[in-house]
Amino acid sequence: MRNIFSVIFAVLIIALMICTYIARRTQKPMGRTVALFEAAFIPPVLGNLLIISSVSRTVSFIGCYLFFLGFDLVMFALINFTMKYCKGVGKGQKPPKFIYALLVIDAVQLLLNPLFGHAFKLERIMVDGMDYYRFIPLIGQTFHRIMDYGIFGAVLLIFILAIKNTPRIYSEKYLIILLSLIGEGIWQTFYIMSRTPIDTSMLGFGVLGILFFYFSLYYRPMKLLDRMLSGLVSEISDAVFMFDASGSCIWANKNGYALVGNDTLKLDDITDKLKAMFGDSDSYVKSGSNQRVIGSGLDARYYTLEERRAIDNQKLSGTYLIVRDNTEEQQRLKREMYDATHDLMTGLYTREYLYQRIYETMSANPDTEYYIIYVDVKNFKVVNEIFGTKFGDDAIMYIANWIRKNVTAYCCYGRLAGDTFGVCMPKSQFNAEFLEDKLSHFTIKSELAEYGYHLLIHLGVYATDTDDTKDISVMFDRAHLALSNIRDEYNTHIAYYDNEIREKLLWNQEISSQVYNAISTDQLRPYLQPIADKSGRIVGAEALVRWIHPDKGFLSPISFIPVFEKNGMIVEVDKHMWRCACEILSRWQKENIDLFISVNISPKDFYFVDVVAEIKKLVEEYSLEPSKLRIEITETVMMNDAENRMKLLDEFRKSGFIVEMDDFGSGYSSLNMLKDMPVDVVKIDMKFLGKTSEKQKARTIVKNIINLTKELGIISLTEGVETQEQYEVLEQMGCNLFQGYYFAKPMPVSDFEDFYDKLADNRTK
Ligand code: C2E
Ligand code: CA
Ligand code: CA
User: Fold this and answer.
1) Domain extents for the chain?
2) Whose CA is nearest to atom 7 of ligand 1?
3) Least confident of 85-89, 191-195, 475-479, 759-763
4) What ligand is nearest to the CA atom of residue 598?
5) N or C: which end of the chain has fewer CB within 10 A?
């Protein structure tokens, strides 16, 4: 019996040493405390080992000392451990200092036992047929026990409080230690009371040491983990379902129940319900697509499904399914997408998105030919100005809706800019007659325009080929350019882009890039067309520009003047022409040729230079008499800012220039206007007076203009006189001056001078 316990105690000591060693080595926060505690158990057990294994009184004595003093050490370690282990629960106070003092006193008084014999003494008994020294407790031992029980009781109390004050899931780690302590306490008490020679409660020390070791260093509250996990999953915003290996649902969280629609639904029904909603699990696991849409339109709900498998020992032990409802996210994305791609006001596609859609449509249908249509509202600014922007907005909305209604599902359309729209339509869907008809009565009714307002809408059309690789923006540019093919803007509403436009465009670009060079190298030069008086005598000439192009040859002004009028380069041409005219006049002055030259002034010139100052400067530079340089302006000059332009003309006249109104009758002017115009000469162009069938009418008009000019003291000049008959008739009507092919075509300056000389010679002969 003694031997068996000796072995057991020895094993316990080794176990405690190992625990001490491991605890000391771990990095865990409780490591040192536990190590001390483990080590503290060793002396009492060792003491007991000495007592039971020896037959010598001295060794037993040493064993007793080890046992008792070791017990003080255990108490110290227990206090130390308890404080750390229960830290954070209860009040967490430090143990009072006197406890440590008591322990020291106790150790001292025990150590003094050999002197006073007051603590214990040994009695010899026989155990297992051998000498055994059992201690008999005396007063000092009583003190020792009272103190130990006191401390022990306090420790138990701390553990009880800890259990009470922590959440239930934590309490188990305190409870186990508490129960072990109580068990050990009872066991130890039993030994003390029973006076059995062998202190079997030392086994409890070992067990206690190992329990402390495990619980304070390695124990993880699994229940805590379970609860935390299930709490987490229950509260999670996704719907979670768990299935056993056979596929039956064994658990669903709150949102899981909510997803399948019914809190009271039985678990057994969930599997079927999910199948009905999302299909077989294989369909979203294997197909790779885990997105599901349920319902459609505004009620559509979007889900992402995720299935995970729990594998245990290489066998499927169950699966769980997570269903995330991302409807809001999808709706937000859709909304953002919509905002980015749609015009706020009309709800049509924005230009960029329209281009993208057209590109996609064309790419998806490479064999289809399309029309790219540029929809342009004419004079929209005027509409805005007359009726206000509210009406303008209504008009834009009206047009947008009209497009929506009148195109088929195969078309893409959008708003390109303020008052322009774009449509892409398969050629087969395009019905020009239908559209022409609709556009010829395009009227908007609104509170702001009670009787309706006719909006003039033009469509520029560009036709694509099946192998067209141009940018969509280029296609629209071309459709836009097509609009320039519309001649009669009230009767034609649709125009097509063709090669002619393209070439014109290239031409425009080419000549515009060459203007400066052409001027400096005299490719641009004046031709002169004679102007005759009633008797047929040449009195002057009109300077008309010609371009003698090194590659293209002779260019008539019709082919470049309109281009330069559009892009403003006309001012360079005109300044050059004015200078040339001055040069000629200056030469003539020296040669005593008494003729005037009329120069043309484009309405655009007024935007770019101070025309009056410019021309006055030239005349001074060449020391000319201003009346020799006649100024031809057209009535369109008066269209903008009439008051100021009148002042300019007055200024010309005051400075001695003669101002001519060119192309009278071609535009908006009325006879009535003549009386207010500060001009000296009116040029009436025969070509504006109609065809031969209306000869009589034309004559009447010309006659009246001439009569009126006479009354107003204005000189009349008819241009475009081609026949002798015309000349005679006009002469009889009282016209003062004549210009036209009947006399001569415009010709180079030297030719003109020869021509003039010859005529003059004839006259003098
Ligand atoms: P315009 O100022 O009305 O010039 C008269 C045009 O009528 C000239 O055409 C002339 O050649 C043409 N013409 C003269 N007599 C007859 C005739 O009997 N029958 C017909 N059918 N035509 C006749 P051109 O030279 O081709 O000039 C065309 C227009 O180009 C001019 O019309 C003028 O508006 C513009 N233009 C010509 N040179 C200049 C210039 O230096 N500066 C500006 N700004 N415009 C110019
Ligand atoms: Ca002219
Ligand atoms: Ca003219």
Assistant:
1) 2-223, 236-330, 347-497, 508-640+648-751
2) 720
3) 85-89
4) 2
5) C
Query: How far is the first Cα of the chain from the last one, in angstroms, to the nearest whole number?
Result: 173
| Residue closest by Cα to atom 17 of ligand 1 | 720
DSSP 96: P
Which residue of 527, 544, 599 sits with most ligand 1 atoms within 8 Å of its CB, as the best mutation to test the pocket? 544
Architecture of the domain spanning 2-223:
Up-down Bundle (1.20)
CA 544 – ligand 2 centroid, Å? 7
Instruction: Tell me the fold of 508-640+648-751.
Output: TIM Barrel (3.20.20)
* Topology (CATH level 3) of domain 347-497: Alpha-Beta Plaits (3.30.70)
Closest CA to 26 of 180, 217, 246, 236: 217
How remote is the CA of residue 591 from the centroid of ligand 2, in Å? Answer: 26
Distance 625 CA to ligand 1 centre (A): 25
| Model pLDDT for residues 497-514, shown as the tens digit of each residue | 998 888 888 889 999 999
Average pLDDT (74-89) is: 85
Superfamily of domain 236-330: PAS domain (3.30.450.20)
Instruction: Give the 3-state secondary structure of residue 510.
Output: helix
> In terms of DSSP bridges, do strands 629-634 and 658-664 run parallel, antiparallel, or are they unpaired?
parallel
CA 300 to CA 123: how far, in whole Å?
A: 93
- 607-639: pLDDT as tens digits: 999 999 999 999 999 999 999 999 999 888 877
Q: What b-and-e string marks burial along 668-702, b requiring 16 or more CB atoms within 10 Å of the CB? A: ebeeeebeebbbbbbbbbbeebeeeeeeeebeebb
Amino acid present at 723: T
* Distance from the alpha carbon of residue 111 to the mean position of ligand 1, in angstroms: 139
CA of 574, closest atom in ligand 1 = 42
CB 48 within 8 A of CB 68: no
3-state secondary structure of 681: strand
Report the alpha-carbon distance of residue 452 to residue 383 in Å, rounded.
12
User: How far apart are the C-alpha atoms of 240 and 381, rounded to whole Å?
Assistant: 61
Beta bridge partners of 683: 717
Q: How distant is the alpha carbon of residue 581 from its chain centre?
A: 60
- Please give the model's pTM, rounded to 2 decimal places: 0.54
Question: Confidence class of residue 574 from pLDDT cuts 50, 70 and 90?
Answer: very high
Q: Which atom of ligand 1 is nearest to the CA of 632?
A: 2
Ligand 1 shell residues, CB under 6 Å: 529, 544-545, 556-558, 561, 570, 574, 577, 600, 602, 662-663, 685, 687, 719-722, 739-741, 746
Q: Which atom of ligand 1 is nearest to the CA of 741?
A: 18
Confidence at residue 287, expressed as pLDDT on a 0 to 100 scale: 53
How far does residue 544's CA lie from ligand 1's centre (Å)? 6
Ligand located closest to 529 CA:
1
